[in-house]
Amino acid sequence: MSKILEQDTEFTDIDVIREALEQQGFSPVFKQGYAARTMNGFAGATFRANLGVTKSNFTAVTGLHTYGDLGFAVKADGTIGFIADDYLIASDEFETVYDGIKTAYAEKKYVRELYECGFAPQPRNLTSTGEVELLFTRVDGL
């Protein structure tokens, strides 16, 4: 029987997670200001998350089965946990999906931090080997 698991993540910015999910093709659900909302788990179970992906959206985007919604919850100490059913989290196929989310998060976070330092991103370039090249221009022209 499936159960809801929460695991720690290296993510620190809920807004960047939303952007990363959108880049990966998901349609995240959230309340204004990322207030906690109720998400659906397995067999009527529920959990609270600040940002989520519905079961139907996850399956439509990835083609993978899940027993419930997926969520990201900001903890009291500011860290962000990932919530999903245990069968999904344990699957090799999900590891590939989660790696894509982590990669998109790292890219979005890096671009945001450089922008705050005065650099504007140029269009990203995907190389023939699948690597992403990021180019920046100083905003002040130096």
What's the quick description here?
By secondary structure, the chain is an alpha+beta fold.
Commentary on this structure:
- The chain has 142 residues and is α+β, with helices and mostly antiparallel strands.
- Helices cover 33% and strands 26% of the residues.
- It has helices spanning 14-23, 55-62, 86-89, 92-116, and strands at 4-8, 37-40, 46-49, 51-53, 70-74, 80-85, 119-121, 125-126, 132-133, 136-138.
- The strands form four sheets. The chain has a four-stranded antiparallel beta sheet.
- A hairpin with a 5-residue loop joins strand 2 and strand 3 (46-49).
- The N and C termini lie far apart (60 Å).
- The mean pLDDT is 90.
List keywords for this structure.
33% helix; 26% strand; 142 residues; alpha+beta
Fold topology:
Elements: E1 4-8, H1 14-23, E2 37-40, E3 46-49, E4 51-53, H2 55-62, E5 70-74, E6 80-85, H3 86-89, H4 92-116, E7 119-121, E8 125-126, E9 132-133, E10 136-138
Antiparallel strand pairs: 1-6, 2-3, 4-5, 5-6, 7-10, 8-9
| Poorly predicted regions | none
Which series of helices and strands comes N to C?
Answer: EHEEEHEEHHEEEE
> Helix count?
4
- Average pLDDT level: 90
- What fraction of residues sit in β-strands? 25-35%
Q: End-to-end span in angstroms?
A: 60 Å
Structural class by helix and strand composition = alpha+beta
